[in-house]
Design goal:
- The protein is of the alpha+beta class.
- About 60% of the residues lie in helices and about 15% in strands.
- The protein has 13 helices and nine strands.
- The radius of gyration is 46 Å and the shape is elongated.
Length: about 425
């Protein structure tokens, strides 16, 4: 199917190993390289005297450091020592997250040599420029998946391209196809003018690729160390061991780690602000709930008073019923309990007398002062206030009920006299 321009019509180029013949021709070259390296480190024959031993130590130092040239024979070119050589000491193994994106997602990472603020400020212009680089076809649409800051004032931009067909359907261009097009010389030069310094695909490894990667130790890494790194992997399902060769790679990973730490801290600060705002909203809501509860209680009392008056009017002229008589007895009992010396009123009087005595002793003996904790005193006052309010409310209810009972008795008495007069 046509995808808008020629670059997307081609199949993604894959690197091949050249078959069995290529592997057989590479094997002698690797063997010669290993023999030359061993000769440079152990038995150079460049000078033919005791200075060759000093040269061997110098070559060993260069091999350990991972840089320089090792001379060992006049007729053979020197050995190039790189950090990938098996004798380099500055190596370690770290872990990287296994990407979960598929090739069908079409995600391609572009590393810009610009700050994140500049890239975000010019994101729309960047999308338009990438669209022109891809041919400017109306059926193609460039989308930005994410923007993230990188060390050294660089920025990572994840993009994908959507192609719309004439029948109205749309699909993403595969990541490998998009990457192959961007790696063409003319397109890559245009991307360089936009500030793109690196282009990579963000796709997950297939199980076969992952297995091959784990089975074969990278160049220059001891297989024993590589096997131990696989054993020490904290999350084999999510992380994969990667070699760190040289100080530059270590510094790069350190900068990336520091960048990620800053991003995590920023996210934690945002979450903390959200939590503080939610706590404020919760406190406001709790205060409103308490206010509504008080209002509900006041309305309940008002409704109860209305019901009492309505019941009085409804029962006016009727004799006292049995349940009303029981209620009067209960109210009298409560009134007597409240007025009893050993109950609430007596305890309150005793507590008040103790407080007065303490105040009196404190005034007389100023050298022996005792203080009550402010919070405890506040709680005592609050408790006493609530008790007093409860008693006052209960007394008022009892008085109202007694008045109602007297009114009912008076009405009954008058009704009896009237009926007696009528009968007489």
């Amino acid at each position: 199917t046509g995808l808008g321009f020629g670059g997307f019509n081609t199949q993604p180029q894959q690197q091949t190993s050249g078959g069995l013949f290529s592997q057989l021709t590479q094997a002698p070259a690797q063997s010669n390289q290993l023999i030359n390296t061993a000769s440079a480190l152990s038995a150079p024959t460049l000078l033919g005297d005791e200075r060759d031993a000093i040269l061997a130590k110098w070559n060993q130092l260069q091999a350990f450091w991972g840089t320089g040239k090792g001379y060992f024979n006049n007729s053979i070119p020197p050995v190039e020592f790189t950090q990938e050589n098996p004798f380099c000491r500055f190596k370690a193994v770290g872990y990287s997250l296994i990407q979960g994106s598929k090739d069908e997602d079409g995600l391609v990472v572009l590393a810009f040599n610009k700050k994140e603020v500049d890239v975000r400020g010019q994101q729309q212009q960047l999308v338009e420029s990438l669209h022109k680089v891809l041919g400017g076809h109306q059926t193609l649409c460039v989308n930005v998946e994410g923007v993230k800051a990188l060390p050294d004032n660089q920025t990572e931009v994840i993009v994908y391209v959507v192609e719309r067909s004439p029948n109205g359907t749309s699909k993403r261009i595969p990541a490998t196809t998009l990457y192959s097009y961007m790696e063409q010389v003319n397109v890559k030069n245009q991307l360089l003018q936009l500030g793109v310094v690196l282009t990579v695909t963000r796709t997950e490894l297939s199980p076969a690729q992952l297995k091959q990667l784990l089975q074969n130790a990278p160049a220059g890494v001891d297989p024993i160390i590589w096997e131990q790194a696989k054993v020490d992997n904290p999350e084999p399902e999510k992380l994969i061991p990667v070699p760190m060769v040289g100080f530059k790679e270590l510094i790069r990973r350190l900068k990336i780690q520091d960048q990620m730490t800053k991003q995590h801290q920023t996210r934690v600060d945002i979450i903390s602000d959200d939590i503080s705002e939610l706590q404020k909203n919760q406190a406001t809501t709790v205060a409103k709930i308490a206010q509504y509860k008080r209002k509900l209680m006041d309305l309940s009392h008002r409704v109860l008073q209305v019901l009492i008056k309505q019941e009085i009017q409804r029962k006016s002229g009727y004799a006292i019923q049995v349940d009303e008589e029981h209620l009067r007895v209960q109210l009298d009992t409560i009134q007597s309990e409240l007025n009893a010396p050993t109950q609430f009123k007596g305890r309150l009087n005793e507590l008040m007398s103790q407080i007065r005595m303490q105040n009196h002793f404190g005034a007389v003996r100023s050298e022996e002062r005792y203080s009550v904790d402010t919070d405890l005193l506040r709680e005592i006052k609050q408790h006493l206030k609530q008790q007093q309010e409860g008693l006052s409310h209960l007394i008022s209810v009892i008085k109202d009920d007694l008045d109602d009972i007297k009114l009912i008795e008076h009405g009954l008495h008058d009704g009896v006299h009237i009926r007696g007069g009528m009968l007489s």
